[in-house]
């Protein structure tokens, strides 16, 4: 038997920090494995996954734009990935492809463990209703906030996402509502930006009045695209946090699935932040 192989598949994938993160996790937990990055042709996702499994691959992370294809390809999809409608982790076991989604768990780890924000009983605003928002809504509901408002530019998408999670929200006793960005009222303890608005330099999709005094404002992006939101949050008196910890958190949960060991994600997050600062 050769070394255990893993990779991240995407297009583009050159920017991915996953090989660095998983190599560090492996070092710190004494695991022997190899983790590469693979650029997958737009029409070649299923073939590439099967070829990797045939080469002896044990599992892979899936990134843009293949998370939806991965949910379709997997033979068995976890409950949280089914609710998210997307898969970011595949494991190959006995000829079967298993799909899971650790994005939401990564966000919850970063909020609760790293940022020290306890979601229980708080009022949460989730901005956006695309793939990024869908991936985290279920795990956020599981933490028993008082309410979650999903606000989106296109109300219909927010309504669909809310309807899909209505049963879970009722079970968790969380008030879950969908709103248009134009019809957003009230203020919140936690405001999460899950839109891609910053990529088009469209500005901040909500007013500063959505932030309660001392609120936490969280952007799922990191690096330059998160900067506008973080500056805006600080100007309105909120604590601001980017999504780098979510990235490391989702990787840690994937590592746990594959290796059965939880790596020291907070240490690796600190190290990654330092590496990124040196390079900028
Ligand atoms: P992702 O997988 O990153 O979530 P997506 O599925 O294309 O990508 O979703 C992008 C999200 O950002 C959507 O909620 C989108 O709003 P619409 O559903 O109305 O398209 C939101 N978004 C993108 N640009 C925006 C902007 N300029 N202002 C507000 N919301 C924006």
CATH topology of the largest domain: Rossmann fold
The count of DSSP E runs of length 2 or more, i.e. the number of strands, is 12
Order of helices and strands: EHEHEHEHEEHEHEHHEEEHEHH
Mean pLDDT across residues: 96
Q: Into how many domains do the coordinates divide?
A: 2
Share of residues in strands: 15-25%
Q: Find the structural class using helix and strand composition.
A: alpha/beta
Structure ligands: 2'-monophosphoadenosine-5'-diphosphate
Largest sheet: 6 strands, mixed
Kindly report how far apart the N and C termini lie: 41 Å
Describe the structure.
By secondary structure, the protein is α/β, with parallel strands linked by helices. The chain has two domains: 4-101 and 245-279, Leucine Dehydrogenase, chain A, domain 1 (Rossmann fold, 3-Layer(aba) Sandwich); 104-242, NAD(P)-binding Rossmann-like Domain (Rossmann fold). The chain is built from eleven helices and twelve strands. The strands form two sheets. It has a six-stranded mixed β-sheet with strand order 2-1-3-5-6-4, sandwiched between helices. Strand 11, helix 9 and strand 12 form a beta-alpha-beta unit. It is globular. The N and C termini lie far apart (41 Å). Bound molecules: 2'-monophosphoadenosine-5'-diphosphate. 2'-monophosphoadenosine-5'-diphosphate binds next to helix 6. 2'-monophosphoadenosine-5'-diphosphate is lined by residues 128-132, 152-154, 157, 195-197, 200, 202, 205.
